[in-house]
Amino acid sequence: MFIRSVKMKRPWLWAALLTALLAAAVFFSVKAAAGKPQMAYVMETEAQRQSFIADMGWETADQYSSKRAVTIPEEWNEVYEDYNSLQKQQGFDLTKYKGKEVEIYTYPVLNYPGHTDKECMQLTLMVCAGELIGGDVCCTELDGFMQGLRNPDRS
After folding, report:
1. Residue 85 is inside which H or E element, if any?
2. Contacting residues for 106 by C-beta, under 8 A, at least 6 apart
3. Is the pTM above the cut of 0.85?
4. Half-sphere exposure at residue 70, Cβ-oriented, CA atoms within 13 angstroms
5. DSSP of 24-82, one letter per residue?
6. One digit per residue, pLDDT tens: the chain, 155 residues?
C-alpha cells in the first residue's frame, strides 16, 4: 500500500480554487438546462393532446381539424428562424429536428378572448416520435398574429 501526505502551505488558495470550480459547475449546469422544456410532453393519443391543450387554458373541438406530416427543412429561411425563436421562448428548439418528419395537429380554438369568429383561431401542435416539440396559437385572418401555446388569460 502506498500512502502520501500533502502539506498545504496556502489553505486560502485551495479554498478559492474549490469555490471557483464549484461556481463553474453550477453555472454550466444551469446554462445547459436553459432552453430545454421543463418536461417532455407525450402526445401519442388524442386524450394526451386534449389534456395538454386544456392545461394550456384552451377549449377546442374533441378532435383535431387536420393532421399532416411535414418534413422540417435542413436549410431555414427567415420565416423558420422567426418561428424557432417563438419555440425557444416556450422552451422548445426545432434545430435538432431539421430534416425530420413531424406530425402537425391543428385544432380550432373556441375560447380565445375577443374573437367571436371561432374559425380564425387555431392551435397547432408539432409532434415527433410521440413527443411534443413545439406549437403555437394563431389567428388566420389577413392581419392575424401568432403566440405561444399558453393562454395568457389563464387563471
Report:
1. helix 78-89
2. 64, 65, 66, 67, 122, 123, 124
3. no
4. 16
5. HHHHHHHHHHTTS-SS--B-SSHHHHHHHHHHTT--B-SS-SEEEEEEPPSS--HHHHH
6. 667 665 656 655 455 444 544 554 545 544 444 444 446 899 999 999 999 999 999 999 999 999 999 999 999 999 999 999 999 999 999 999 999 999 999 999 999 988 766 678 999 999 999 999 999 999 998 889 999 999 988 75
Cα–chain center distance at 70: 18
Distance CA 48, CA 64 (A): 12
Task: Say if CB 135 and CB 128 are below 8 A apart.
Answer: no
What the block records as the C-alpha cell of 111 is: 375560447
Cell numbers that stand for 85 in this block: 425563436
Domain parsing of the chain, residue ranges: 46-147
How many contiguous H segments (helices) and E segments (strands) does the chain have? 3, 5
